[in-house]
Amino acid sequence: MSDKFDVIIVGAGPSGSAAALTLAKAGLSVVVFERGEYPGAKNMFGGVLYTPILNRLVPNFWEEAPIERHITKRRFGLLSEGSEAAFEYRCEDFNTSPPYNQSFSALRAQFDPWLAKKAEEAGAMIIPETVVDDLIWKDGKVCGVKARREGGEVEADVVIAADGVNSFLAKKSGLRKAFTWNVLAVAAKEVIALPRETIEDRFSLEGDEGVAMEFFGDAVAGMVGAGFIYTNKETLSVGVACTINAFIDKKIVPNDLLERFKAHPSIRRLIRKGETLEYSGHMIPEGGYNQVPEIITDGLVLVGDAAHLVNASFYHEGTNLAMASGLYAAETIIEAKEKGDFSQKGLQGYRTKLEESFVLKDIKKYRLVESWANKNPKFFKEYPDLALDLLKDYFTISEKPKETIQKELTKKFRSKIKLLRTMVELNQFRKTFFSS
Amino acid sequence: MANILVFAEQREGKVKRVALQALGTARSLASEGDHVVAVLIGENISSQTELLSSGGADKIYMTEDTQLSAYSSEAYGTVVSEIAKKEAASLILMGATAMGKDLGPKIAARLEGPFAGDCIKLALNDEGMFIATRPVYGGKALSSVSSHQHTFQVVTLRPNVFPVISEPASTQALIEPWTEKPDFSGLKAIMKEVLSTAGSKVELSEATIIVSGGRGLKSPEHFSIIEALAEALGAAVGASRAAVDAGWKPHSYQVGLTGKTVTPTLYIACGISGAIQHLAGMSSSKYIVAINKDPNAPIFKIANYGIVGDLFEIVPLLTEAVKKIKNEA
Amino acid sequence: MKIAVCIKQVPASESKIRPSADGKGIDPAGLSYVVNPYDEFGVEEALKIKEQLGEGTVTAISIGTAKVSEALRTCLAVGVDQAIHIQDPATEGSDGLTIARILTAALQKESYDLIFFGRQAIDDDSGAIGIYVAEFMGLPHVAGINKLKILAEDYRAVANRQIEGATEVIETALPAVFTCQKELNEPRYASLPGIMKAKQKPLTVWTLSDLGIAPDTVGSGHAKVTEDQLSSPPTRSAGKIIEGNASEAVSELVRLLREEAKVF
Ligand SMILES: Cc1cc2nc3c(=O)[nH]c(=O)nc-3n(C[C@H](O)[C@H](O)[C@H](O)COP(=O)(O)OP(=O)(O)OC[C@H]3O[C@@H](n4cnc5c(N)ncnc54)[C@H](O)[C@@H]3O)c2cc1C
Ligand SMILES: Cc1cc2nc3c(=O)[nH]c(=O)nc-3n(C[C@H](O)[C@H](O)[C@H](O)COP(=O)(O)OP(=O)(O)OC[C@H]3O[C@@H](n4cnc5c(N)ncnc54)[C@H](O)[C@@H]3O)c2cc1C
Ligand SMILES: Nc1ncnc2c1ncn2[C@@H]1O[C@H](COP(=O)(O)O)[C@@H](O)[C@H]1O
């Protein structure tokens, strides 16, 4: 075995394994260091994988990948303390044949090891239980890493930092400054076991169909963020994710917010009698386009969460962007190897590929979401409460003539809402989410 | 049921207490007409037959030879296996001591019969089936096992768990010399010497009282305060792995998962936090006393009596108090 | 010398052990697995002997499910030359005697000079298998060794083992079986180059048919000992924290020990 590798990858999450698989398939020598006991051991996400890129990495992945249910239904619920208004969309076209609508619920403790195994089968070397502590530099260029083990210095032409949201390597390399807290969201999640039949009955699903549900408003105590429930085969992924600022303002810890969410009458029923199998917490880099740092330097590229490649819209998308960035980084390195140029310039193609793909296009499109959300807390607390209050009045049965009710409603609405201001806000909302 | 054989372990011509516990157990399990048969092997051991007789043996096989003065897995294994065959013994009991842990599996393999080691309970169920209970996973679980043959070939019993018989038998046991000596010239493993380890006078795994010290003692010299208390109580001295790894005491003192399993009546833990691996070795002690300055030390979760305080203050006081009582008595 | 080490993969010693719902075994959820710590002493001793003699091979052998390959890789990473994984669904539920029979068949495929086992596996805490194997192979054994000297010219070994209050020194002809106790050595950690090299070392997988053992002679159906139930031990509840200043607390403790516990 030669002592030097073509590529070292730090982190065996979706981004690292996607890169490893692509590089190994092309015949490059690759080693992946992962600090967990095995890839995915401590990794978490909400629960829906978006898979067009995965299908490029592993064609017909659904025949073997440990995925749970294909999503045919999405539901958005607005909660107040005691009521709920919801919008649900279901489409039978998403229920015909794989890959359905390219969205599947999954559990990382199973998915990550599987993808890493694919990379290993292609020839990459995956080394778990090994923490990378530092980069090795030569002539101002990254040329390897130091792992926390005896004989832990390993060299390579290129290092890929796939070490997640806290990327130590992004900081060590100087590509990213220390965190600014307000660009991060924090999440707490539980995996709750229920019998398969109960899940299907309770959520009105058949076979391996699944639903993705997001809840706003009182679901997360009116904070900027949302709660979620995703159905797996025999478990539910149940969690909350809000901005760090919101947690600080509300003086509440993620775990308590999750307990609060679980206790809401609309949620309680959905998880009733379930047994909590595991609990986890994690950060999400929701800073948006402006927070995507420089991602290339001589001998080093950042991928996935380490590069802050997360789409902070409704979708909680991250794994697909992570896999895409891993794929593009790998493709670029394969080209760079042909030219023998691993400098920042030689690796610039990676950035171009990201800019030209959905990865940075989507992140750019939703670049305003974060600041919009921070500037418009009303959309998370006041407006949901008002809307649900009005709905309650509207649906409450009494002896009052309908006309009176409608008049009272209009009055209440006018008293709470400054029409012009709200029009402006709604227009901003539309712009933020639906146009570019 | 048929006959129950008890291997009567002796060291230096003295039968071990656990052998009497095994006899007591055999007696309580034997039905009408079954014999409890003791096997006594060694040199200068004839004085011990009395003890075995009153301890519940109906019959004692005795085999004496200078070459049997030291334990040999092969030689002892052959003698016991042959006697077991002759007596058609359905069950062989012995203590889970260093010797028993070696001899038990040896005989089980020779006779190809089911074995259950280090048991803390052995009972007959309604169907006349033997059920043995043994701690597993370092004492974190109890496993009850049985054999489809309804009995075990060999069971080793954890010392100090089973009672000796309460009423000594009045009838004398039949003593039968066993003369079929094993082929000593064929032995491949030979005991060269037995070095007595310098250390406490009372052996840990047999002690009824143990005083143990841990990292809280801070230095090897301080073990003297543990030793003083042990001396006053007539107790054995033990140590946590932290104390052993620091080189304060040899490994023979270590209590716990990778040390000894002890079941004394009283275990006094001084300056020991109570890590799960330490508990594995001592949590089945009858009474546990913890002396630790950290009120949150996990040892307090299993101790019958705890004192939160500085061991350097408490232990000497305790030693004095014990001495005073002993002097009065 | 050819040296074999039999290793078992077990839940780490700090694991929380919960009986499974049906009370037949443990709930595997959330457990992490390691090489049985006593077997690590065997691996280390084998490597040291090989290094001292300047020649030889060390082979690690384990029976178990696919997961066991991780434990064998760990052994390869610290320097074992080759690993044999006996993997056959028929072995599921085998008792110790059967495991020993299978290991015997595997060990007999080569002529090993030294065979190491752990003193006991920290899951079943049985401590029998090494001794069974020695008996089945007709070899001498020394159980629970904490010191070993190989006399290569004489093809003999001298081993120490601890007994109650003493140390036995036993000399044995080779080949021989040893079961390893703590204090024998300090197992080494895997270096990164070691781990990377381990990925390329051979990991041989054998099924029962490779060993000439009929699948219907092993497994739970052929176990002479069966586990009927696994339960949690009765919990020891926290007792009294004795209050008061040091001398008050000590007098109260002495009183309790005499009156309640009646220990002296
Ligand atoms: C609550 C929540 C919900 C989400 N929901 C979704 C969703 O529904 N759908 C979706 O697509 N995305 C979702 N995401 C986002 C998604 O989880 C991430 O974007 C994605 O996991 C990023 O992948 P990655 O490979 O870049 O990083 P990670 O998955 O974080 O992997 C990084 C890896 O690097 C390892 N590592 C870190 N440091 C070191 C070191 N020094 N040495 C060695 N190894 C190291 C870690 O152990 C880890 O395995 C969610 C995220 C959160 C927190
Ligand atoms: C595979 C494995 C096997 C192991 N096997 C064993 C084993 O067989 N036996 C074993 O013991 N451990 C074993 N361990 C180690 C175990 O995990 C602990 O590390 C060890 O038991 C700690 O020893 P300790 O309690 O003496 O030290 P510590 O945990 O450091 O505790 C010292 C205690 O002393 C107290 N203290 C300090 N000063 C004073 C004072 N002046 N007065 C009163 N109290 C004081 C402190 O509050 C503290 O609670 C094993 C570990 C592993 C991983
Ligand atoms: N499945 C197995 N495969 C290989 N070796 C084993 C296996 N089970 C036990 N052993 C060995 O036998 C020793 C004693 O195990 P036990 O008798 O189960 O306590 C262990 O320390 C291992 O060396």
Describe this structure in a few short sentences.
The complex is a heterotrimer of chains A (436), B (329) and C (264). With 436 residues, chain A is an alpha/beta fold. In chain A, 36% of the residues lie in helices and 26% in strands.
Can you characterise this structure?
- The complex is a heterotrimer of chains A (about 425), B (about 325) and C (about 260).
- Chain A folds into three domains: about 5-65 and about 105-180 and about 290-365, FAD/NAD(P)-binding domain (3-Layer(bba) Sandwich), CATH 3.50.50.60; about 180-285, D-Amino Acid Oxidase, Chain A, domain 2, CATH 3.30.9.10; about 370-435, no CATH class.
- Helices cover about 35% and strands about 25% of the residues of chain A.
- Chain A contains 15 helices and 17 strands.
- In chain A, helix 13 (about 380-395) runs antiparallel to helix 14.
- Chain B is α/β, with parallel strands linked by helices and about 325 residues long.
- Chain B folds into two domains: about 5-185, HUPs (Rossmann fold, 3-Layer(aba) Sandwich), CATH 3.40.50; about 205-330, 3-Layer(aba) Sandwich (Rossmann fold).
- Chain B has eight helices and 18 strands.
- Chain B has helices spanning about 15-30, 50-55, 75-85, 100-110, 225-235, 240-245, 275-280, 310-329; strands spanning about 5, 10, 15, 35-40, 60-65, 90-95, 115-120, 120-125, 130-135, 140-145, 155, 175, 190-195, 210-215, 235-240, 265-270, 285-290, 305-310.
- The longest helix of chain B is centred in the last third of the chain and has 18 residues, at about 310-330.
- The model of chain B has no long low-confidence stretch (mean pLDDT about 95).
- Chain C has about 260 residues and is of the alpha/beta class.
- Chain C has helices spanning about 35-55, 70-80, 95-105, 130-135, 190-200, 245-260; strands at about 1-5, 10, 35, 55-65, 80-85, 115-120, 140-150, 155-165, 165-175, 175-180, 205, 225-230, 240.
- Chain C has a nine-stranded mixed β-sheet with strand order 9-8-7-10-6-1-4-5-11, with helices on both faces.
- In chain C, helix 2 (about 70-80) links the parallel strand 4 (about 55-65) and strand 5.
- Chain C starts with a strand and ends in a 5-residue tail after the last helix.
- Chains B and C meet through helix 3, helix 4, strand 7, strand 9 and strand 10 of B and helix 3, helix 4, strand 7, strand 8 and strand 9 of C.
- The complex binds flavin-adenine dinucleotide (2 copies) and adenosine monophosphate (AMP).
- Adenosine monophosphate binds near residues 8, 96 and 121 of chain C.
